[in-house]
Amino acid sequence: MKFGKIFKKQMVPEWVEAYVDYNCLKRVLKEIRSHKHSKLTRAASRVSQQAEALHRSFSGLSFHPRHSERAGDIEDQVIKVDTVQEEGSRKLYETKFLKKSEEGGEFEESFFKKLDENLNKVNKFYRDKVKEVIEEAALLDKQMDALIALRVKMQKPDIDNLNLEKHPSDKVVVDTSDNTMRTQGTVNTDMVHGIERTNIPEEEASHIVADIVPVSHTGGNEEEGSIGDKQDLREILERVKMNDVLESPITTLKGVFGDSNEPISKKGLKKGEEQLRLVFSEFYQKLRRLKEYSFMNLLAFSKIMKKYEKIASRNASRNYMKIVDNSLIGSSDEVNRLLERVEVTFVKHFSSGNRREGMKCLRPKVKRERHRVTFFSGFFSGCSIALVIAVVFKIESRKIMEKNYGTEYMANIIPLYSLFGFIILHMLMYSANIYFWKRYRVNYTFIFGFKQGTELGDREVFLVSTGLAVLAFVCFLLNLQLDMDWRMKHHKTLPEVIPLCLATIVLFILFCPFNIIYRSSRFFFIRSLFHCICAPLYEVTLPDFFLGDHLTSQIQAIRSFELFICYYGLGEYLQRQNKCHSHGVYNAFYFVVAVIPYWLRFLQCIRRLCEEKESVHGYNALKYMLTIIAVIVRTAYELKKGRTWMILALISSGVATGMNTFWDIVIDWGLLRKHSKNPYLRDKLLVPHKSVYFAAMVVNVILRVAWMQLVLEFNLKSLHKIAVTSIISCLEIIRRGIWSFFRLENEHLNNVGKYRAFKSVPHPFHYYDDDDVDKDD
């Protein structure tokens, strides 16, 4: 594989713009090569002409051309790199090409100019990121300070005057001037966050907590610190409290109606440890990506300079790479030191000293593509197609639709199985989305917050959807066979139970606690669904409101689930008739079920409005409120009919459709920007063909308008009402799938613009410094 493809594959998607623009440099080299080629062609023709003339004039004389100077002798004269000092001790590199006067020298000068721009860009980005991780490491050092103190307190609550000291492995930020550990058993001082703490001998502390051992971090003596600066355990604990994160119903209610500032218990400490474990894991991934960023850019500079030497026949690589190696990205070692310290700290405090287990958590295995997934996906796809053909032949061979009871029979059975059809179609659209997200390098795993190694790929989702399709079609075919079999006339209730058995199997697989059939992904879905149902008591994350938006496209599936409850709960299946609409309770819930998804999204918007104080969430809540009104009026018209209800349904649906369409295209997709580089689109596009975006906008408008088909009720004699409803519901699911791709593309581009490649995990502890105490006073 060529280096350019490897380089692109190894990039952090959100940092793409911060990498060396390798393709741009290659294009400049192609210009140099084409110019060199034309130059050599002209020179060869001139030499040929001169040789012929000399041969005619000086026949018998030999011609010995003068050897040019070797390239190695003039290597130092090809380029000269100057360093410009900026404010904040930042270095900028400027390369002067000394062969500019030669023919084609302007191309090579342009090459080195772009090379300097890339080197300065990479160094600036790396400097900023290193500064960020050092500051974050200092905060993690504080968190470890609080964690160790709390552990000591929980193990020995009666000892309040024990002075806290820390081993270097307890610290993430370590003084680079002292990398050696002193002998144990001495009394020394340890400076942590400006607070000087007295270390105690090992024999006095080992029986309290095994993690605490005496060490000198600053190399000073006990007498160097004043007594007033030394902090005992009680004073440290008085400065520590749990961060108030309103992420669950209990903490949300406490934060709204009462004071959540309670003493830290063992349960709270355990929760804090788990949260800090996640913080360390995410911080470690950031350090690893930063190290890979440095390595890949250095490799890119080396590769491009070798290409330049080969094309231009100039030995400038050694001089320039010496500058690159001495720059910040080539000489800085802070990231490597932080990686080592994080590993030591994590293994010691979060994996009981077991390095293998600790490194498994810090470096989860990358998910491998399995051939059996591909095989079974193809196998189930073929089975599904064969079963569809079998169902069609079964209906045609028995001439079910031509019989008197055929229409009524299909009207009873189709709504029961359509639930699984909607789910299968939704999963197929999600599988297609994952495929295109991966193709266009949309970092969907980061956006959704999937744990590395547990995320499902497009093949896995396709496998699950085709497997469910096979199961549903088998049950449907079995249902038809049993209903048409004369031997089953005395057991007519048996075929009616098959859809219920299918639904039971699907729910059992979904909630199965065993580690089978992608348990982590199933539990992730259940957790997000529970957060949606409990809105606004849970903190709203992207997976939660993304799932909420998808639920709004599954109104008909939710109504089918309600039909299951009515059909089997009220005993309708015994009479083999669907008369659920004759029940007042069912009609009431028919209203409620249609409104619930939009109401949940409305509550999520209100929660985000209260937390983030951004007006866009208020407008989004207004959009869902208008949709709720439209759904209520439409449902009332569907049940009661009448011209007045139809007019109200048309008006409310038209307003809701217009606002939803505008929000989809302008807000969610970020398109229709007048002053963008791409007219009526946006500045950055991942799909190279602009026509795709215009087609998506047109399709979105058409499918949004199709939503009003249920209100207009065109006279379609060839289609049953249930079939029309099912088709429109399928079109809405397809529209939602298209919306999902561009919605995540826009979210990814926002992350790229902010270089946001890692999720922010809140720290569990808040540590009050002296300045904070003074401010409070």
TrEMBL record:
Is Electron transport among this UniProt entry's keywords? no
Task: Please cite one Gene Ontology biological process associated with this protein.
Answer: phosphate ion transport
Q: Where does this one sit in the cell?
A: Cell membrane
**One GO MF term:** inositol hexakisphosphate binding
Please state every residue range assigned to the domain named EXS. Answer: 581-775
User: What's the superkingdom here?
Assistant: Eukaryota
**Domain SPX stretches:** 1-322
| Any single GO CC term annotated in Swiss-Prot or TrEMBL for this entry | trans-Golgi network
Which UniProt key words apply to this protein? Cell membrane, Membrane, Phosphate transport, Transmembrane, Transmembrane helix, Transport
Q: Which Pfam families match?
A: EXS, SPX
Membrane protein topology class: Multi-pass membrane protein
Principal localization reads membrane
**Membrane-spanning parts:** 373-393, 413-436, 461-482, 497-518, 584-601, 621-637, 644-672, 692-712
Q: Which PROSITE patterns match?
A: EXS, SPX
Protein's job = May transport inorganic phosphate (Pi).
The entry's family comment says: Belongs to the SYG1 (TC 2.A.94) family.
This protein is called EXS C-terminal
What species is this protein from?
Arabidopsis thaliana x Arabidopsis arenosa
